[in-house]
UniProtKB/TrEMBL annotation:
PROSITE patterns listed in its UniProt record: ATP_GRASP, BC, CPSASE_1, CPSASE_2
GO molecular function: ATP binding; ligase activity; metal ion binding
Name this polypeptide is given: Carbamoyl-phosphate synthase subunit L
ATP-grasp domain mapped to chain residues: 125-324
Keyword S-adenosyl-L-methionine in record: no
Domain Biotin carboxylation, first and last residues per copy: 6-453
Keywords: ATP-binding, Biotin, Ligase, Nucleotide-binding
Keyword ATP-binding listed: yes
Superkingdom, taxonomy of origin: Bacteria
Species of the source: Caldimicrobium thiodismutans
C-alpha cells in the first residue's frame, strides 16, 4: 500500500526545455522549485524561472548535470522532498534513482529496478517475449561476425539487418548492414560506438524493417497497480535515428490496430509492475501491418506534449501525484482523444548540415495564436552553449484533424517563429510539413534521407537584408508621398 507523501519543494535535475516544462506545472501545483546550473548556464531561462537555484559545477556534464552526489547534496541542503529528472542526463539512470531514494527523497519517476531492467535491451526483449509482446526476429548477445552469419542461415533472415548496442538508445551504436561483406566492419564500428557511448560493448542483431514506422504508446501507472494508456504517437520522422517531428494520433494505423498496440503496451507495463509515466516504443512494418516491440522509455518523453494536447491531461502533474502515492483519478474509459496534434523540435543546428549552431540569440519571436503551444528553454539575448543538447524549443500545433493541425504548424513555422543569432532546423521542418508525401501520410524513418535534396531546395532564406529592404521601402514611401494623416 503506497502511503501518501507531500511534495512541497522539488529539485529539477535538468536544464533548458525539460526544466522549464516541469517548472510550469510546479507553479500550477504550488510546488516550489530548485534549479541547478553549470557555469555557462548561470543566465539560463530555467535559472530565472525557478524559486531557487544552485550552482552545480563547470560546463562538462560530468562536472555538473551528471554529478549525482552534488545534485543530491543540493536537494537535501535546500530541504526538497523530491527530485524530478526530466528527460536526458540522469532520467534513466537506475543508480541515480536508487541514490535519490536512499537519501530519503522521492524519485518522480518509475521504480529504479524497472529502469535497470528496461535499460538493458537484451533483458527488455526477453521480458517482452514473456509478456507475449511481439519482438523483431533477432539474436541476443552477439560475440562475432560469424555468429551473425550463422543466425541468418538458421533463421532464413535476409538483408538488411541492424547491429545495435544492447545498452543503447538515441541511435548510438546502431549500424545497418546490407551485405555479408559489410558485417565485419559494421560489427567493429557498432562495438566501438557502444563502448564509447555506454561503456558497454554488448551487441545484438535484428532484422531491419524496411520503411518501418515508429509508433509509441504513452502509459501511466500508479502504485496501486492501475495502468492506463493515453493512446499512441507517431515518431517516424527522424534524422540519424533521432526524432525531430512527432504527432498524435498516428496517421499510419486504423482503430483496430490502435486498440491492439495500446493494450499490448498496457499488458507489458503490468508485467513490469510499472508506475509513473513511461513510453512503450514499437516498430510497425507497413507491408505486413505487424508491429514489434522496440524498447520502454522509463521517463517523461520529449514528445509528451502532443499527448497532452489530444487528451487534455497534464502528464507531469500526474507524475507528481503518482510519486506522492495518489491513485490515478480516472480509468481507461475516461480517456478519449478529440484533436490532432503535431510537435516539431527546434534544434540549434544548421538545417543543411546538422552541425551544431551556438552563440547568442539576438532576436526571438515566438509563434502565437489559436492552436499553438510552445515549450521554450531560451529567451531573446540568451546564450546557447556548445556543451549540451541542441534543443532550444518545442513547437506544437493542434487542430480538429490532421489537416487543421498542419495548417496551424505551417503558420507557426513560416509566419510566427523568428530566431536570429544562431541557426535552427526550422526551414527543414517547414519543408517536411509541406512535402506532399508527408501530407498524405506516406513516409518512413528514412524520409529525410530519401528526400533530402528536395527538402533543402525548398528553403526560403530570410536574412537581415529582407528587413533592411522593408525599412528602405517604408522610407521611400514616406519620402515620395509626404507625411500621412495617421502619422
Amino acid at each position: 500500500m503506497a502511503l501518501e507523501q507531500d511534495i512541497r519543494k522539488v529539485l529539477i535535475a535538468n536544464r533548458g526545455v525539460p526544466a522549464v516544462r516541469i517548472m510550469n506545472t510546479c507553479r500550477d501545483k504550488k510546488i516550489k522549485t530548485v534549479a541547478i546550473y553549470s557555469t555557462p548556464d548561470r543566465l539560463a531561462y530555467h535559472v530565472f524561472l525557478a524559486d531557487e537555484a544552485v550552482h552545480i559545477g563547470e560546463a562538462p556534464p560530468l562536472d555538473s548535470y551528471l554529478n549525482m552526489e552534488k545534485i543530491i547534496k543540493a536537494a537535501t541542503e535546500k530541504k526538497c522532498q523530491a527530485i524530478h529528472p526530466g528527460w536526458g542526463f540522469l532520467a534513466e539512470n537506475p543508480a541515480f534513482a536508487e541514490m535519490v531514494e536512499s537519501a530519503g527523497l522521492i524519485w518522480v519517476g518509475p521504480p529504479p529496478q524497472v529502469i535497470r531492467l528496461m535499460g538493458d535491451k537484451i533483458r527488455a526483449k526477453k521480458i517482452a517475449q514473456k509478456a507475449n509482446v511481439p519482438t523483431i526476429p533477432g539474436m541476443l548477445n552477439v560475440q562475432s561476425p560469424e555468429d551473425i552469419l550463422k543466425w541468418m542461415r538458421e533463421e532464413e533472415v535476409i538483408f538488411p539487418i541492424l547491429i545495435k548496442a544492447a545498452a543503447g538508445g538515441g541511435g548510438k551504436g546502431m549500424v545497418r548492414v546490407d551485405s555479408a561483406e559489410e558485417i565485419p566492419v559494421a560489427f567493429e564500428r557498432a562495438r566501438s560506438e557502444a563502448k564509447k557511448a555506454f561503456g558497454d560493448d554488448t551487441l545484438l542483431v535484428e532484422k531491419y524493417i524496411e520503411k518501418g514506422r515508429h509508433i509509441e504508446v504513452q502509459i501511466l501507472g500508479d502504485k496501486f497497480g492501475n495502468v492506463v494508456h493515453l493512446f499512441e504517437r507517431e515518431c517516424t520522422i527522424q534524422r540519424r535515428n533521432q526524432k525531430i517531428l512527432e504527432e498524435a494520433p498516428s496517421p499510419s494505423i486504423d482503430d483496430n490496430l490502435r486498440q491492439e498496440i495500446c493494450f499490448t503496451a498496457v499488458r507489458l507495463a503490468r508485467e513490469l509492475g510499472y508506475y509513473s509515466a513511461g513510453t512503450v516504443e514499437f516498430l510497425l512494418d507497413p507491408k505486413t501491418r505487424k508491429f514489434y516491440f522496440l524498447e520502454v522509455n522509463t521517463r517523461l518523453q520529449v514528445e509528451h506534449g502532443v499527448t497532452e494536447l489530444i487528451t487534455g491531461l497534464d502528464i507531469v502533474s500526474l507524475m507528481f501525484d503518482i510519486a506522492q502515492g495518489k491513485k490515478l483519478p480516472f480509468t481507461q474509459e475516461d480517456i478519449y482523444p478529440n484533436r490532432h496534434a503535431i510537435e516539431v523540435r527546434i534544434n540549434a543546428e544548421d538545417p543543411r548540415t546538422f552541425n551544431p549552431s551556438f552563440g547568442t540569440i539576438t532576436r526571438l519571436e515566438i509563434p502565437l495564436g489559436p492552436g499553438i503551444r510552445v515549450a521554450s528553454g531560451v529567451y531573446e539575448g540568451a546564450d546557447v552553449p556548445p556543451y549540451y543538447d541542441s534543443l532550444i524549443m518545442l513547437l506544437m500545433s493542434a487542430g480538429a484533424d490532421r489537416t487543421e493541425a498542419l495548417r496551424v504548424m505551417d503558420r507557426a513555422l513560416s509566419r510566427g517563429l523568428r530566431v536570429e543569432g544562431i541557426k535552427t532546423i526550422a526551414p527543414l521542418l517547414l519543408s517536411i510539413i509541406r512535402h506532399p508525401k508527408f501530407i498524405e501520410g506516406n513516409f518512413s524513418t528514412r524520409f529525410i534521407e530519401e528526400y533530402y535534396q528536395e527538402l533543402i531546395s525548398a528553403f526560403r532564406e530570410k536574412t537581415s537584408d529582407d528587413e533592411a529592404l522593408k525599412i528602405a521601402q517604408y522610407v521611400a514611401e514616406i519620402s515620395a508621398l509626404g507625411p500621412q494623416p495617421w502619422m
